[in-house]
Amino acid sequence: MKKAFSIAVSLVFAAAGITGCGATNLSGGVTPADSAVLSGTVKTGGSTSVEKVMTALIYQYQDENSEVSVNYEMNGSGDGIKNTISGLYEIGHSSRELKTDGTEDGLDAVAYAIDGIALVVNKANAVNGLTTEQVRDIYIGKIENWSEVGGEDALITVVTREASSGTRSAFAEIVGLEKADDPETSIVPNATTCDSTGAIQTAVTQNANAIGYMSFSDADEANIKILAYNGIECSEASLKDGGYTLKREFYLITKTGATLSPAAQSFVDFVLSAEGQEIVAANKLLPID
Amino acid sequence: METSITRSRGSKAPIEAVMNCVFLVCGLTAVASVVLISIYMIASGAPAVAKIGAPRFLAGQIWNPESGKFGILPLILSSITATGLAILIALPVAISVAVYLTHIAKERTANAILFLIELLAGIPSVVYGLLGAILIAPIIFKIQTALGLPMSGSLASASIVLVIMILPTIISVSVSSINAVPKEYNDISLALGSSKMQSIVKVILPAGKSGIVSGIVLGVGRAIGETMAIMMVAGNAPIMPELLKPARLLTVGVSMEWAYSSGLHREALYGIGLVLFAFIMIINVFLSFALKNGGAKR
Which of A271, B41, B167, B265 is most buried, judged by most C-beta within 10 A? Predict the structure, then answer.
């Protein structure tokens, strides 16, 4: 449903972009090839998780629009959203959804890429899938043995990412582990902690009883087993049709109702265009359409 | 005094004055680096310690940046435990090896072994980490399973890796300190009727004690500052140290969360750096103290 919503928003945005273009066409009679007319600086900033794809998008965009310079300050989704509200950024970058507790109202989030989070275990593990409750219970230490979730009689080694990792916060939020104060909703303190996707993969490859989570695009099925989540296999297809819900989207954040500068608007259009989406796919992410 | 020296030598070799200057600048560069690092560490680490509160920072038992808890006691204790264990295991081995190399082995054998030990000292720590993860961790996994614990990286694996890493340091320092014991001590002891072993244990080792002590201190310095190898085998969970459970050491505490941290969290990581820096400073002061004592005795 959330995905449907974001697609709707993105369609609205795309439509706005098209009408914007149309207007220029009417008044100035220019063609799309006239994009070099655009100039100025677009201030953007936020999430560090989107760095790879966003940098690629910005390079390509600036290549085609040499008069426009798109700034990108990497300081985390929280700052990206905050600074978009304050007006410091025209476009904020976020790798999480907007909060609905009233602190982040008045913003539009346009999803442009999907990053799946794969639950990974050792290849020798007999378990094929887990539900949200099971994953949460494993991570808070309530389920300690694989036999409780249909596996062999062996103690589970919980593997997690370090605090402040974007993947960790997205995983925690989706599974329901976001309240770090409450032992019922926080990852067990004795969980093995890895500082990178690669370290997670190594830990799970070496330890027959380990469970971890990592970006789907980086998971190498030659060495590890990817679990189904709530009965749905993690695949490009299930990510696309919305069946697989353990995923996060990358968003462009803008103020609701605000008119973007022509340069900013053309950048948003570019990200959502077929060309922009190709760059998204080239960075091992799923395009939104 | 300085001017009179320069003047008296000035006529002979003006180049000496120039070279004096060059060496002085080199020496000052080294001193300046230490001073700058000290100032930088204190300037960037102290604010976080002050904000969090020194008792809550140093004696707090929970490290959970997500809920604003910055207690590094588990990290401090894990570092001390791992280093202490490593020294306890490495020391007897290192001394035995040193005794063997200096008094028992034939010279050619001793030289060959010493060469290999020095090679050991030059292996990058990431290689030790790999070995630990591939060879030591699986053994610990079996022990953990037998004792009803989940298989994971552990303080034990970390300590064993540290033992291998600090052995060459302690051995080579011990060998040179034993070699520095005058040969007559051994001769007299043997002439007085003691056996070879008695002579080694009761005469030579006590005479070379101060050198061995500095070997230990150097080993502690190396162990407490090790990061990469430890991160690969320790499991890195910030909990109170237990031999067969994951442990996060001070060095790992800083490097692990550095990349994405911000605000008070990042400042707290500087704070950990400051604590580590203080640890190493104390060890070094102790080291120079031990070295000076050794010099006086000899």
Answer: A271
The identity of residue A99, as a single letter, is K
Shared-domain flag, residues A202 and A135: yes
**Contact yes or no for B239 and A190 at CB 8 A:** yes
Task: Write down the ipTM of this complex.
Answer: 0.81
| Domain around A152 | 115-248
| Among chain A residues, CA nearest to B245 | A190
**Is the predicted pLDDT of residue A132 greater than 90, yes or no?**
yes
Are B253 and B110 members of one domain? yes
B17 and B96 co-located in one domain = no
Query: Counting every residue, how long is chain B?
Result: 298
Closest CA to B284 of B225, B203, B239, B227: B225
Task: Give B116-124's long-range contacts (Cβ < 8 A, gap of 24+).
Answer: B117/B167, B117/B168, B117/B171, B117/B172, B118/B168, B118/B172, B120/B164, B120/B167, B120/B168, B121/B168, B121/B169, B121/B172
Q: Whole-angstrom Cα distance, residue B257 to residue A195?
A: 7
Dihedral pair phi/psi, residue A157, rounded to 5°: -100, 115
B39 shares a domain with B163: no
- B161 domain residue, yes or no: yes
Please list the residues that pair with A72 across neighbouring strands: A44
Q: How far apart are CA B104 and CA A68, in angstroms?
A: 77
* A80, two tokens: 């990206």
Among A56, A51, A41, A45, which residue's Cα sits nearest to residue A92? A45
In this prediction, residue A239 carries a pLDDT of 84
Q: Does B237 touch chain A (CB under 8 A)?
A: yes
Do A260 and A217 lie in one domain? The reply is no
Helix (H, G, I), strand (E, B) or coil at A45: strand
A interface residues, B as partner, C-beta within 8 Å: 48, 75-76, 79, 144, 154-158, 162-166, 180-181, 186, 189-195, 202-203, 206-210
pLDDT tens for residues B65-122?
A: 888 889 999 999 999 999 999 999 999 999 999 999 999 999 999 999 999 998 988 8
Q: What is the pLDDT of residues B175-196, one digit of tens each?
A: 999 999 999 999 999 999 999 9
pLDDT at A30 over 60: no
| CA-based nearest residue in chain B for residue A146 | B150
For residues A249-271, give the mean pLDDT: 91
CATH number for the domain that contains residue B258: 1.10.3720.10
Domain assignment of residue B156, given as a range: 73-297
Query: Considering the domain boundaries, does residue B109 fall inside one?
Result: yes
- State the count of interchain CB pairs (< 8 A) between A and B: 89
Q: Give the total number of structural domains in chain A.
A: 2
Tell me, yes or no, whether B4 and B92 share the same domain: no
Q: What is the pLDDT of residue B175?
A: 93
Task: Give the CATH number, domain containing residue A56.
Answer: 3.40.190.10
Q: A78 and A130 share a domain?
A: no
Please give the backbone phi and psi of residue A152, each rounded to the nearest 5 degrees, phi first.
Answer: -75, 170
